[in-house]
Every structure is written in structure tokens, then in C-alpha cells.
Write a structure and sequence with these properties.
This protein is α/β, with parallel strands linked by helices. Among the domains are: 99 residues; 114 residues. It has 16 helices and 16 strands. Strands 2-1-4-5-6-7 form a 6-stranded antiparallel β-sheet. The radius of gyration is 45 Å and the shape is elongated. The two termini are 25 Å apart.
């Protein structure tokens, strides 16, 4: 299966674009373009044409599809047609032309949609020619199932939504549909209906009591059907809420984390303000210290010089001893030293005092002056040293405040960059919406539990009712035959359900084994993954070599590989090589991861399915399709297109590059 060409008419900025994908080089296609050039709208054009879906949703403003150039170029009352057409070859050798059109009328300067058309033309072989398909949507469901599309038409930058547990039911439906097991599921439903109808027919043929039992049986079945539908709707509602929660969280990363970042930023701003105040106060203290101690500080060199002169004079004995002559004379006369010990004439102590007393006779006038200045000098020096110690404390406080301020400023800059584009009101609103969605989800889950309990109760009532009908003895011949056929249909249903479960398990295991093999082949950390599995509820799990579930912890490149691997696994099991169209496959990867993934894609997508090579179309920016990536992908001889934008007209041209 391969897209041979895609044409756009007035579809957003693709006003008149034809892309030729025919030939072998059309199997591996690169469409390059800058952000905003129109890659995503190229992707949306394909999903709109096939499924009337934009950005993975069928709810969109239809007028938003019209090219601005087409609106400006039309006159009042003119018709404007938006169209996307896809020509493709099918796996059975046939061809198909798929086109979707919206018709607008320009009124009051704006396009107003008036009608729409969806058409599929199919050609089984070249001899017959194209035939219009009566029900185009049925043809799409049969050949390009919508439920299957998310795994072949996906946005590489939205892979955080890939393989969510909420998607398990859709994965199940997709797997069973491509394996045609859903046909058996439909047959089971019909067998169930036939068995119930025959049972009620039998009950009605056994008198008034039988009539009552038949009535009860119908009531139980009707209630079971209603409650089952309510359960399915409630599960869809809860899933929708889960998607809303996911979207709210992914919109700004993690709402709770971002809210916490805002709180941290407030705290940092407060601490930054406090650090600034400490710095200002310390600088003020330093100014006050300078005013009070500047004279001392400025004279410290002169004081130190004077102290040195005194010390020199003392060494050269031009200073008197530290005691007065009268004090020394009194000691000799009393015969007692300062410590009140006896002074013996001729002793060492007595001779020392006499020596000191004799020095008063040789000191100079300068020595007297210096000696008288020394006490004041020492006092001033001590005060200055004490003041200097105080300045050191103040300077330490200034350095600490500056360090704290710089550290806090750095943290604030990091948070400001992280929170760029967000504001407190937005976070508060998102947080409130998230909380409401979570509360509604929790209520929905409780309602699911109640509905499941009700269904089990109704089933028990239905079982008792069925036993009572089977126990009736006064049945008419017709009723007996109906009861016999009902029992046969019930047995056939049991057998069919068993076959259905076995086939489901077989197909699930086939997909799981293929997924496990494909994903491991793609990984560059070969021994890190122990197993990739799909459980009985069709939830995908990735187990590492230490037996931990790590699906939610996979890196962006690994998640992209898992998406590709799953698509290839589904194709392998289905025996159909569905075309893959991927928008921004490497948008979240660094250069090394981009090169690794490019190598994986170039090699692993060469596989053939039933002799058919799978087509891959990747829409890439210049930051994705780097020279290194281009060199690696060149081994596949890709067909490369470039989206050129006419900014003045806001229109594009998609031009094939020469190899």
C-alpha cells in the first residue's frame, strides 16, 4: 500500500500544491520545512482527507481550513472549494483515488460552508477502470481503519500520548480489526441475540407463567443492554477526562511542579530581597565605621613608625626603664622587691635593681619624650587594631550577603527561564481545571464501579430466569423446538467465544512478540530492555533488565522507536504495509539521538511485508534533517521535498530537490 500523489487546493497555506510520490524513491520521503512553513498542515491535510480529522480531533472550525489567499482573491458570493486528494496503490494490486471537499460561499468577507463531499474511486485492476464506491466511509474502515490510523499517522512531538493505559481499548480494537477477528466478535453478538430471542419464544409457549418469564427475560436483557451502554459511555467519558488531564499537564509540563516552581520563585525573590537588605545594611555599617575610625586608620603607618622608634630607642638604651627612680630607690631601702621577697645586698636581684637605677643617669632627653608618649601610643594602636577587627567582621558580612545574592539571582534566572510564557493566573486556571477534571474522573470511576456491580446483578437475575425457563415442562411443540434451538445457539456461542478468546490471545501474542523484536532491534542499548509485552487487557508494557516497568520513563528517542516498532509490528501481523506519515519524528531529540534514530529508521524500515516495502513519509525541520541525518538517510535514496513559503501571500510551494 503506497501513497502515489497528494494534491491540496486552498487548504490553509497549501493553496495549489501537488506532491508526486510515484516510483521506488517515493517509498522513503522527506518533506523539509521551517517551523510554521506548513509541515503540520501537510499532515493535517492527509488526516482530514481520510478521516475528516484535524489535530487528532473531528471537532474543528471548518472555516479555518480555507486559504487566506483564496478568501482575499474571491468576490462576494463566489464559491471557494477546499480539497485534498490522495491517489494510492493498494496491497492487492488495485488503485484508489480519495478526495474530500468543503464548499464555501464568501459572504460579508468571510467563507461560509454550504456543503461537503467525500468520494472514493477504486480500480481493482487496470482493465476495468475506476469505479465509484457507494459508501466511501465503509471503504476507508475496511482498507484504512480509522482506529488503526494513530499508529501510522502520528505526531512525533506528541508521543507522550502514545501507549497510554487509556488507549488500551483502542489498541485492542485496532489489533483485532486488522486480524479480522472483529468479524467473529460481531458473530458472537448475533449468536447472543438469536439465543435470547429463541429462549423467549420457548418461554411464551409454556402458559401464563412462561409469558411472565419471557417478559422478565426481555426486561433483564434490555436493562443489561442499557447498563452496558451506560458503562461504555462512562468509560469513554472517563477516558476523555484522562485525556483532558494529560493535555492540561502536557500544556505546561507538570501543573503541580510548575505551581511549585512559582512558589519557589516567590520564596527566592523574598530571600533575594532579604540578601539585598543585609548587603545595604552592612555597607551602611562600613560607612559608619569609616567615619569613626578613618583618622586612626589613616595614621596607622605613622603610629607604627613611632612605635618602631620607641622599640629602637629601648634596644639602644635611650629609654628609661618602665619604673621610676623613686620606686627603685624605695625597693633598695626597704630591702624588699616588688613581690615582697627579701633583697640581699650583693644578690642578683639587688644588683639588677641597682643597674636599672643607674640607667636613669644615662637616658637622653629624647628618651624621656619617647617614654612619655609610649602609653598613649599603645592605647591608640590597640584601639585601631580593635577597629580593624570590627571592619573585618563587616566585610565578611558584605561578602556573605553578596555571595547569597549572586546564588539566589542565579536560581531566579533559571526559574524565570523555565517559567517563561507562564503566569500565575494561567497556572491557577490550569490547576483549577486539572483539579476539576481529576474530581470528575474519580467520580466517573466510582460510577463505573457501580455500573459494573449492577451489570453483575442483572446477569445473575438473567441466569436464574434462564434456568426457570429451561425447567418448564408444559411446552408446546413449537416452544420445545425454540428451546432446543436456543440451547444449541448458546452452546455455539460458548464455542465461538472460546475460539474468539484463543484467536485474540494468539494475535495479541504475535503483535507482542513482533513489537518486542522490532523495538530491541532499534535500540542502541541492546541489553537494557528485557521484554516488551501486551497484556490480556492490551496494555503495552516495557520491562527493563532489573524487572521494572519503564514505559513512562522512556527517553524521547526510545519512545519514537517504540512507536515505529509498534506500527511495523501491526503491519507485519496484518500482512498489510500501511503507509506511515510522521510529523517531527526527531523534534525532541538531541543531535546524537537524531543520528542514532536516523540509522535505525534507514535500516529497520527496509523490511518487506508480504513482499511489499512499507512507505514512510517524514515531515522534518532543518534542526531535524541535519547534514549528519541527511547523510545517514541517504542510504535509502529518499525523495526529498522542500516547503518554500511566499511570506507576502502566506502560501507555499512544495518543490522536489534534485538528488
Amino acid at each position: 500500500m503506497k501513497l502515489e500523489s497528494i494534491s491540496f487546493k486552498n487548504f490553509r497555506q497549501h493553496r495549489d500544491v501537488d506532491v508526486d510520490l510515484a516510483g521506488d524513491t517515493g517509498l522513503f520521503v522527506i518533506v523539509k520545512g521551517n517551523n510554521g512553513a506548513g509541515k503540520t498542515n501537510f499532515f493535517n491535510g492527509i488526516t482530514w482527507c481520510l478521516y475528516e480529522s484535524i489535530d487528532d480531533s473531528t471537532k474543528f472550525l471548518k472555516e479555518s481550513l480555507v486559504s487566506q489567499g483564496a478568501i482575499l482573491g474571491a468576490k462576494e458570493g463566489d464559491e471557494i472549494i477546499v480539497e485534498v486528494s490522495i491517489n494510492m496503490t493498494l496491497s492487492n494490486g488495485g488503485s484508489a483515488k480519495i478526495s474530500r471537499q468543503y464548499f464555501y460561499i464568501k459572504a460579508d468577507g468571510e467563507p461560509k460552508i454550504v456543503r461537503q463531499n467525500f468520494e472514493v474511486m477504486s480500480m481493482a485492476n487496470f482493465g476495468v477502470g475506476f469505479q465509484r464506491i457507494q459508501d466511501s466511509n465503509d471503504w476507508i474502515d475496511e482498507n484504512l481503519p480509522r482506529r488503526f490510523s494513530p499508529y501510522f499517522l502520528f505526531d512525533g512531538e506528541r508521543l507522550d500520548r502514545f501507549f497510554r493505559k487509556d488507549d488500551a481499548r483502542f489498541i485492542r480494537d485496532s489489533v483485532l480489526q486488522i486480524a479480522n477477528i472483529d468479524v467473529l466478535e460481531n458473530m458472537n453478538t448475533r449468536l447472543q441475540q438469536v439465543s435470547e430471542e429463541l429462549l423467549r419464544t420457548a418461554a411464551k409457549g409454556s402458559g401464563s407463567k412462561g409469558e411472565e418469564l419471557a417478559k422478565q427475560n426481555q426486561q433483564f436483557n434490555e436493562r443489561l443492554e442499557v447498563e452496558s451502554k451506560n458503562l461504555a459511555l462512562k468509560k469513554d467519558e472517563v477516558q476523555g477526562l484522562a485525556e483532558s488531564i494529560q493535555q492540561l499537564s502536557s500544556k505546561i509540563g507538570n501543573v503541580a511542579e510548575t505551581a511549585a516552581d512559582f512558589d519557589r520563585r516567590k520564596e527566592i525573590i523574598q530571600n533575594l530581597d532579604a540578601a539585598q537588605k543585609r548587603l545595604d545594611a552592612s555597607e551602611g555599617d562600613l560607612s559608619s565605621w569609616a567615619v569613626q575610625n578613618a583618622p586612626h586608620s589613616l595614621g596607622m603607618d605613622a603610629l607604627a613608625s613611632l612605635k618602631a622608634e620607641i622599640d629602637f630607642a629601648r634596644v639602644n638604651k635611650v629609654l628609661p626603664p618602665p619604673f621610676t627612680s623613686d620606686t627603685l630607690t624605695d625597693l633598695l631601702e626597704r630591702g624588699r622587691c616588688l613581690c615582697e621577697r627579701e633583697l640581699v645586698d650583693g644578690s642578683e636581684s639587688c644588683n639588677h635593681i641597682k643597674d636599672l637605677l643607674s640607667k636613669y643617669n644615662v637616658v637622653s632627653d629624647l628618651g624621656e619624650v619617647l617614654s612619655s608618649l609610649e602609653p598613649q601610643l599603645l592605647s591608640i594602636i590597640n584601639d585601631s587594631q580593635s577597629a580593624r577587627s570590627g571592619s573585618d567582621v563587616i566585610l565578611d558580612r558584605i561578602r556573605t550577603a553578596k555571595t547569597d545574592f549572586a546564588s539566589l539571582k542565579k536560581k531566579l534566572d533559571v526559574l524565570n527561564a523555565k517559567l517563561a510564557g507562564h503566569n500565575d493566573e494561567e497556572i491557577a486556571t490550569l490547576h483549577q481545571n486539572l483539579r476539576r477534571a481529576e474530581e470528575s474522573r474519580d467520580l466517573g470511576q466510582r460510577e463505573i464501579g457501580r455500573l459494573e456491580a449492577t451489570i453483575e446483578s442483572v446477569k445473575a437475575d438473567l441466569t436464574r430466569n434462564t434456568k426457570e425457563i429451561n425447567a418448564q415442562s408444559d411446552l408446546s411443540e413449537k416452544a420445545a423446538e425454540a428451546l432446543k434451538n436456543s440451547k444449541f445457539a448458546s452452546k455455539a456461542l460458548v464455542a465461538s467465544q472460546k475460539i474468539y478468546r484463543e484467536l485474540c490471545d494468539q494475535v495479541r501474542n504475535d503483535v507482542a512478540n513482533s513489537l518486542d523484536r522490532q523495538f530491541k532491534d532499534m535500540l542502541w542499548k541492546k541489553d537494557f530492555i528485557e521484554k516488551v509485552d501486551i497484556d490480556e487487557n492490551f496494555r503495552v508494557s516495557v520491562i527493563n533488565n532489573t524487572d521494572f516497568e519503564i514505559l513512562d520513563k522512556l527517553a524521547a528517542g526510545e519512545r519514537t522507536c517504540l512507536a515505529f516498532a509498534f506500527s511495523l509490528a501491526l503491519s507485519s501481523v496484518a500482512g498489510l504495509a500501511f503507509p506511515m506519515v510522521v510529523d517531527s519524528p526527531m523534534g525532541r531529540l538531541g543531535p546524537e539521538m537524531q543520528s542514532n534514530l536516523a540509522g535505525v529508521l534507514a535500516e529497520k524500515t527496509k523490511m518487506t511485508i508480504e513482499g511489499e516495502t512499507q512507505q514512510i513519509i517524514m515531515l522534518m525541520t532543518a534542526t531535524e534533517y541535519t547534514s549528519d541525518v541527511a547523510k545517514i538517510l541517504a542510504t535509502r535514496n529518499p525523495r526529498v521535498f522542500n516547503i518554500d513559503v511566499d511570506v507576502a501571500k502566506s502560501e507555499t510551494k512544495i518543490v522536489k530537490e534534485l538528488n
